[in-house]
Design brief:
Layout lengths: L11 E5 L7 H13 L3 E4 L14 H13 L5 E4 L16 H5 L3 E4 L4 H9 L4 E3 L14 H10 L5 E4 L8 E11 H6 L12 E8 L3 H13 L2 H4 L2 E8 L12 H9 L6 E2 L13 E3 L2 E6 L4 E5 L1
Parallel strand pairs: 1-2, 1-3, 3-4, 4-5, 7-8, 8-9, 9-10
Antiparallel strand pairs: 5-11, 6-13, 7-12, 12-13
Helix pairs in contact: 7-9
Keywords: Carboxypeptidase, Hydrolase, Protease, Serine protease
GO molecular function, one term: serine-type peptidase activity
GO biological process, one term: proteolysis
């Protein structure tokens, strides 16, 4: 998997909104923070052209992203927010220029679709904070600091606390995944998971427990969970239940789907729809170790 070149101070970060609409003041504040960190910004032409629930029309959103992918003066692409909409145009993107001169793509949630497309074309990308995370940036904003450390060439070296539901073990593989509902939406497409030799990361927001159970069963019956090398479970935020309780929490739903497999499973990784969203390099050669004392997720 190709890792784009590291950024240098003074490089340009392009900002696009390939899915949901966003308050432009959030973009402006993010630009200020990015400039304070020593980088230039370039905004998509249609970034503030609201169209219903989207940031702009499908064609305009696609054109903005395509322009940033093809623009050799842009060194990385930051997606402003997720929401919904990337799936509506991903198949129309042209990867000729960006595979010739790779650059980092940054985002999560609906941006999972783009991560899958980038990986299909052999490009690593960063599952990480988007524009809203820059609003409350302080010296203790670890996710933003780590994001820029990755952009500048540092490799992921995470050590996190143990968790009662963890499944012990050690493995190596290519890190992949993202938002679980979007991974489910990509099943059966050219962007579907290729599980062999992969460490799968999953997270989600505001889904019904029964729906997540359905997704995990789909991944199990479809052979995905059997073939992966390890599983990293991020944050499942604001999960919903029916009036009649489903009867299992998210940890139990996931664990019952993978407990028969002999690979490490790490729960409660601090990445997803949370205030401090630790970035991950998707497409990175990664080592996952889960034991009684800690979980380590390391670039190798």
């Amino acid at each position: 998997m190709i890792h784009p070149p590291s950024l240098q101070k003074g490089d340009t970060i392009g900002i696009v909104a390939p899915a949901g609409r966003i308050d432009f003041t959030i973009i402006e504040q993010a630009c200020l923070r990015i400039k304070q960190m020593g980088y230039k910004t370039k905004l998509g032409k249609y970034l503030n052209k609201h169209y219903h629930n989207f940031s702009a029309t499908d064609e305009n959103r696609k054109d903005d992203l395509q322009s940033m992918m093809d623009d050799h003066t842009v060194n990385a692409i930051l997606c402003a927010r997720g929401g919904y909409g990337t799936l509506r145009f991903v198949d129309d993107l042209n990867f000729d220029q960006i595979t010739e001169k790779p650059k980092w793509l940054i985002g999560f949630s609906d941006i999972t679709v783009l991560h899958a497309a980038f990986q299909k074309h052999g490009l690593a990308s960063i599952h990480g904070p988007m524009c809203k995370s820059f609003l409350n940036y302080t010296e203790s904003s670890a996710d933003i600091d780590i994001l820029f450390a990755f952009l500048e060439g540092q490799k992921p070296q995470y050590i996190i606390n143990p968790y009662t539901k963890n499944q012990k073990g050690h493995t190596k593989g290519i890190l992949t995944g993202g938002n679980l509902s979007l991974l489910y939406a990509l099943r059966g497409t050219k962007y579907d998971l290729k599980p062999e030799g992969k460490i799968l990361f999953i997270e989600d927001l505001s889904e019904y427990l029964y729906h997540l159970d359905r997704i995990m069963l789909n991944l199990k019956i479809g052979g995905i969970l059997e073939k992966i090398s390890g599983l990293v479970v991020g944050q499942f935020t604001e999960m919903k239940d029916n009036k009649t309780p489903f009867g299992e929490n998210i940890d139990e739903i996931i664990l019952k789907s993978v407990q028969e497999y002999n690979y490490p499973v790490a729960f409660n990784f601090p990445s997803g729809h949370i205030e401090t969203n630790y970035p991950l390099i998707l497409g990175d050669n990664t080592e996952l170790t889960v034991d009684s004392n800690q979980v380590s997720l390391l670039s190798v």
